[in-house]
Amino acid sequence: VLRVGFLGAGLIATYHSKMVRSSGVDVVRAGVFDPDVERAEAFARASGHVAARSVEEVLDGSDVVYVCTWTSEHLPLVAAAAATGKHVFVEKPLATTLADAEALCAVLAASGTTNQVGLVLRHSPAYRAARALIEDDPAGRVMSVVFRDDQFIPIQGHYGSTWRGDIRRAGAGTFLEHSIHDVDMLQFLAGPVDHVGANEAFFHELPGIEDVMAATVRFRNGAVGTMTSIWHDILDRPSQRSVEVFCERRMVTIGGHDWWGPVCWQDTDGATGRLGADELRERFGDLNPDRDFLLAAMEGRASTPDVTVALDAHRVTDAVYRSAKADGMPQSVVRS
Ligand SMILES: NC(=O)c1ccc[n+]([C@@H]2O[C@H](COP(=O)([O-])OP(=O)(O)OC[C@H]3O[C@@H](n4cnc5c(N)ncnc54)[C@H](O)[C@@H]3O)[C@@H](O)[C@H]2O)c1
After folding, report:
1. How confident is the model at residue 240, as a pLDDT?
2. Index of the ligand 1 atom closest to the CA of residue 154
3. Ligand 1 in contact with 161 (CB < 6 A)?
4. Which residue's C-alpha comes closest to atom 40 of ligand 1?
5. 73 close to ligand 1 (CB < 6 Angstrom)
6. Is 150 in the pocket of ligand 1 (CB under 6 A)?
7. pLDDT at position 157, please?
8. What pTM was estimated for this model as a whole?
9. Is 156 helix (H, G, I), strand (E, B) or coil?
10. How far apart, in whole angstroms, are the C-alpha atoms of residue 320 and residue 311?
11. Is-contact 101 69, C-beta < 8 A?
């Protein structure tokens, strides 16, 4: 039976703790450490974990560690966990810089343990169904993707976090912190992005924390697309994504809910279709990424998406920021 520890006891740690519970996998609830002692204790009370006094105490008593801290802490904590042979679930973004994301991947590769990253949309029935529709032969080639992601700036509301407004802890604004999911989904739906151009804006005047990024992307397969990411102050609009994929003979949209769509399409012969929550549930069942991770760790095999998937999204994200800093000058995605 795996002993599961947590580093960080905030919003996403709570989400994972609930997913572990609903996974049905039998685990021992081991230590949880957060420098915010009240948070760690509240988390421990709610989840059955034990509030620990240090990172080391959590590592000593765990086989699997969830790294759920603000982004700047991911690299040192993953390195400490990897050095002691733990299986690691780390949240996205991997790190505040591409160099640190690469270093994080290197320590996990060297440790040889199981790892998974919180790019949760890889498990979304809506995105999986959309990809199948796009890859379906009659659709033809992908021509363009129009992707928009907006949410209220998450230094308020149910996030209750200030670190997302601090460049040292978050690394950057909406594009790194939130839209790394979207970059990953762009590539999941339409293949690798090789070239980008981008512009950014700072309406909230938080140093280094852009609240708008508008990027154009060129996919390796010849398709071109746009990706706009916005942090506004419309508190009734938490995370909202709108995705339109234009193929030669089919248009596919994902709207509404990230997980349950609906996914709609329209074909060249006038046929249309719609997959709502019920159909998506029927087709994909009860997907639980935390269950996949825990089972993979128990069996000592690789899990997915692992940190290398996130690293590729970081490479695209890095090119987007390079372009924005160069007033929109096109940049290539560097894959070494
Ligand atoms: N996959 C997703 O959809 C998703 C959603 C939300 C957040 N996230 C990511 O998860 C991470 C955490 O976000 P959150 O919303 O839970 O933030 P949060 O502010 O709710 O929680 C972060 C916690 O980390 C703690 N912490 C800081 N340094 C620490 C350390 N050295 N050791 C232990 N704990 C430490 C803080 O005290 C805080 O309680 C971020 O990287 C964020 O980008 C991912």
Report:
1. 95
2. 15
3. yes
4. 70
5. yes
6. no
7. 83
8. 0.97
9. coil
10. 14
11. no
- CB environment 203-228: b (16+ within 10 A), e (fewer): ebebeebbbbbbbbbbbeeebebebb
At residue 161, the pLDDT reads 85
Closest ligand 1 atom to residue 36 Cα is 37
Atom of ligand 1 nearest to the CA of 33: 33
Ligand 1 mean position, distance from CA 140 (Å)? 41
Cβ(121) to ligand 1 under 6 A?
A: no
**4 CA distance to ligand 1 middle (Å):** 17
Amino acid at 178: H
Query: Which residues of the chain are modeled with pLDDT < 50?
Result: none
Q: Which two tokens stand for residue 166?
A: 């601090």
User: What is the 9 CA–ligand 1 centroid distance (Å)?
Assistant: 7
CB 9 near ligand 1, within 6 Å:
yes
Q: What is the pLDDT of residue 336?
A: 79
Closest ligand 1 atom to Cα of 178? 43
**CA gap 150, 163 in Å, rounded:** 19
Asked if residues 291 and 276 have their Cβ atoms less than 8 Å apart, the reply is no
Q: What is the pLDDT of residue 177?
A: 98
CA distance readout (Å), 75 to 70, 108, 120, 155, 314? 11, 10, 20, 23, 14
Ligand 1 binding pocket includes 38 (Cβ within 6 Å): no
Q: With CA atoms as reference, report the closest residue to 246 among 262, 233, 265, 227.
A: 265
Q: Which residue has the tokens 């009659």?
A: 138
Which residues in 136-236 belong to E strands, given as ranges? 142-152, 193-201, 212-219, 224-232
**HSE-CB of 130 using CA atoms within 13 angstroms:** 34
The CA 69 to ligand 1 mean position distance, Å, reads 3
Predicted local confidence at residue 285, as pLDDT:
85
